[in-house]
TrEMBL record:
<keyword id="KW-0503">Monooxygenase</keyword>
<dbReference type="GO" id="GO:0006207">
    <property type="term" value="P:'de novo' pyrimidine nucleobase biosynthetic process"/>
</dbReference>
<dbReference type="GO" id="GO:0009636">
    <property type="term" value="P:response to toxic substance"/>
</dbReference>
<keyword id="KW-0288">FMN</keyword>
<keyword id="KW-0560">Oxidoreductase</keyword>
<keyword id="KW-0216">Detoxification</keyword>
<dbReference type="GO" id="GO:0016627">
    <property type="term" value="F:oxidoreductase activity, acting on the CH-CH group of donors"/>
</dbReference>
<comment type="similarity">
    <text>Belongs to the nitronate monooxygenase family. NMO class I subfamily.</text>
</comment>
<keyword id="KW-0285">Flavoprotein</keyword>
<protein>
    <recommendedName>
        <fullName>Propionate 3-nitronate monooxygenase</fullName>
    </recommendedName>
</protein>
<dbReference type="Pfam" id="PF03060">
    <property type="entry name" value="NMO"/>
</dbReference>
<dbReference type="GO" id="GO:0051213">
    <property type="term" value="F:dioxygenase activity"/>
</dbReference>
<dbReference type="GO" id="GO:0018580">
    <property type="term" value="F:nitronate monooxygenase activity"/>
</dbReference>
<keyword id="KW-0223">Dioxygenase</keyword>
<dbReference type="InterPro" id="IPR001295">
    <property type="entry name" value="Dihydroorotate_DH_CS"/>
</dbReference>
<dbReference type="InterPro" id="IPR013785">
    <property type="entry name" value="Aldolase_TIM"/>
</dbReference>
<dbReference type="InterPro" id="IPR004136">
    <property type="entry name" value="NMO"/>
</dbReference>
Amino acid sequence: MAGGPSTPQLAAAVSDAGGLGFLAAGYKTAEQVASGIEAVRAATSSPYGVNLFLVSHFEPDLDAVHAYRRSLEPEAASLGAELGAPRWDDDEWQAKVELVLDTRPDVVSFTFGCPTPELLRRMAERGIHTTVTVTTVAEAREAAARGAASLAVQGPEAGGHRGTWDQAAEPDSIPLLDLLSAVHRAVDVPVVAGGGVATAADVAAVLEHGAVAAQVGTAYLLAEEAGTNPVHRAALADPAFRETAVTRAYTGRWARGLANRFMADHQDAPAGYPHVHHVTAPLRAAAVAAGDPQVAHLWSGTGHARARSVPAGEITRALVSR
Ligand SMILES: Cc1cc2nc3c(=O)[nH]c(=O)nc-3n(C[C@H](O)[C@H](O)[C@H](O)COP(=O)(O)O)c2cc1C
């Protein structure tokens, strides 16, 4: 969970409890990821994973992005923030690839796209298990054909960004268990499933539908070891935030979060990741600094009411206690 919630301590605590903790590489410099890997290694000798963003080049409708930026100016002014400039970047892809080839985490997962067969093979040769996030049967077939060792099927219930490879595509809304069954039938590689999985019964359901493991994000957002910011934590604990919704308003890419005023006001936001992400980043930081949950992004899946403020090990054990 890039953007703060995932910390080395969270990953280590999950792995120590018998899960597979992940370090989020997204939005960080390769140097910061290297320090994070060292911190995980210092905290645990259990297996762990690193998650990379694979951001394909995308040409948004720049007029639409600039128009959207202008529409946000009053919003930014009221928080004393200056909006960022829209631009593309690749999240330091090459440097992070070199880093994981060098440090060899047990698992490397990818979201927003699929590496080439050559890169997947290079990772396998280094003993790294690769997992590619997929949101459709077509993506699943392609990732398996390219040589992904396993797939992470992400359903529409999931918190945070949809991992859809084509960011301009409208995301599918086939529920996780149906998507999982379809993917399981279509491919020959192990499948992990996530999206709204927050209880032991949810974990059992994905295992019964063919998954070898469950992927869980939102249920850990309030974990003691998570780096979730105070505004996000307070909103998750606030019964007034009852609904989640999907939005492009924060980053130009569809993502699910607790429904707030900003999402309702900017339903017409254009596609354009990471351009829009760079535009709104200072506004979001100012909203967090001001303690404003109606402007800050509050990524959460549909299982958010189940998140608990306890140690991550306890959350992990509860997810498999039946
Ligand atoms: C706050 C937050 C941040 C996330 N960041 C990432 C990320 O950096 N990389 C990624 O592959 N998935 C990310 N996800 C999605 C998760 O990998 C996963 O699909 C999702 O959390 C599963 O659904 P759940 O949130 O309902 O448990 C994020 C999810 C949340 C809630």
